[in-house]
Amino acid sequence: MQNTHLRTYVKKHPDNKMAWYLLGKEYLNEGQEAKANYCFQQAGEVYEAFERSKAPADIWVDYQNKLVEMGEQKEKKQRVRKLWLTLLMLLVLALVPPADAPGFSRDTATALTDALAATEDQEEQAGEASVADPEGNDSSVFTAGTFGGGSQGGTALAAAWASAGSNVQTSAVLGMQVSDQWSLWKRNMPVKYIIQTNNKGRLTAQSYDAKQCDCEPPEVSTEVKQLAAAWTAKQEVAASLSSAIGTYRKKNGSWPKNVNQLAQPFPNNVLGETSPGMSQMFPVLLAMHQQGKETEAQTGTAAGENAVDSADVFGDTLGGEPFLKEPLEIVVDKKNHRLALLSGNTIIRNYEVGLGGDRTPEGTYVISDKVVNPNARSNGEFGTRGMQLSDTNYAIHGTNEPDSIGLDESLGCVRMNKADVEELFALAPQGTPVRIGTDLLPDTVVVPEAKDRYKYTLVPKQNNPNKTYHWLN
């Protein structure tokens, strides 16, 4: 028999010393002594015992055939069981929709099948030892998926299912609403699913959406809700810091060495504010950026030089990386009087703004000057914050006319409420792209309650006493 089957068997059952011994005999017959000796070393006492025996060679051949046959029978049973588990999981996901129904993802079915295949190995290992972590260390992770408009979060659920295992006992999927092509990120996103690994290594998925499961789901625990709220806040900090690192690189041609290099006085205030956790996140996010720029790595710090284990920072995030991976972008919709802060197709904030109708130009810009109290006034026409759009006389700024929000009363600038512009100023780094157009965003306002606003500390000397701004307010 060719050793291909034995190699497959040994790979799946590395603790079977007899299999190692038989594989070594196969390699020896083929003249591959180095590989044979390695297998004999893995066989240990089995090698010593059987090399001294006088049993006929055909006995070993029969044993080898039986070993492989048993392995193939076990795999067949696992395939059948995996198929039934997959079908059961799809029932939970979609309440048995047809395969071509809106929102049904064939990729989801494939992902679940692969995930359930991995589950078999976990359950087999659980026969001798408990998988549960009694201390609860590094055992809970979060992710988010889109629910609504035909989407039922299948991809996020499949990913959570696939990632469950010995180091992750609880995976929670939070629900983002869908509006056209956009996913709406909120601080109070509901828990849609929790996937858990019990002390026998078996996975269970509990839906917390009564409409989704057609059931009366249990209450989500206060602890999970608090952890979810902390997780969403953390992702916003990571998105802001990651975008700032990218901006600094474009502007200076080198990588920043720490958060302080990003949070300098005007005009080098890539970040106008800092947030809790940024210093801890910085080495991980920097390394991720550098690994994505391998061809340019020689111009900056070596990717691993300042790196720390991402699990120490993003161990509570499915996949061990930030959820909001795409660089931040600002989009202004002239029709709906909305300004959105985006990461990819995820709307992190969607503020109501005042505009100037046809006087507000359409096009693509970047945030250049970021100024606190423009023209040295906090109660002037530009309010407490101003963000100039490229080298123009247009800006995103506050206003002393809050009643103009939602109307076309400016000379072209984008007016914002005080709390909104201050939050945007903290989140959006210098260099953030700004796209202005018509009919781009949903009408839904996405703004947290005051207690859930983005937390930040203002960097000193963010004003510009050397310039008087004449933005077209």
Automatic annotation (TrEMBL):
GO biological process: one example = peptidoglycan-protein cross-linking
**InterPro entries (UniProt xref):** LD-transpeptidase, LD_TPept_cat_dom, TPR-like_helical_dom_sf, Transpep_catalytic_dom
Q: In which pathway does it act?
A: Cell wall biogenesis; peptidoglycan biosynthesis
Q: Which UniProt keywords apply?
A: Cell shape, Cell wall biogenesis/degradation, Glycosyltransferase, Hydrolase, Lipoprotein, Membrane, Peptidoglycan synthesis, Transferase, Transmembrane, Transmembrane helix
Catalytic residues (UniProt): 397 (proton donor/acceptor), 413 (nucleophile)
Q: Where is this region: Disordered?
A: 118-145
GO terms of molecular function: glycosyltransferase activity; peptidoglycan L,D-transpeptidase activity
GO cellular component: a single term: extracellular region
Keyword Cell wall biogenesis/degradation listed: yes
**Where do the TM regions start and end?**
83-99
The answer to whether UniProt assigns keyword Transmembrane to this entry is yes
| Residue ranges annotated for the L,D-TPase catalytic domain, each copy included | 328-437
List the CDD domains.
YkuD_like
Do you know which Pfam families this protein is assigned to?
YkuD (PF03734)
Report the sequence similarity comment from the record. Belongs to the YkuD family.
> What protein am I looking at?
Lipoprotein-anchoring transpeptidase ErfK/SrfK
- Which organism's genome codes for this protein? Paenibacillus amylolyticus
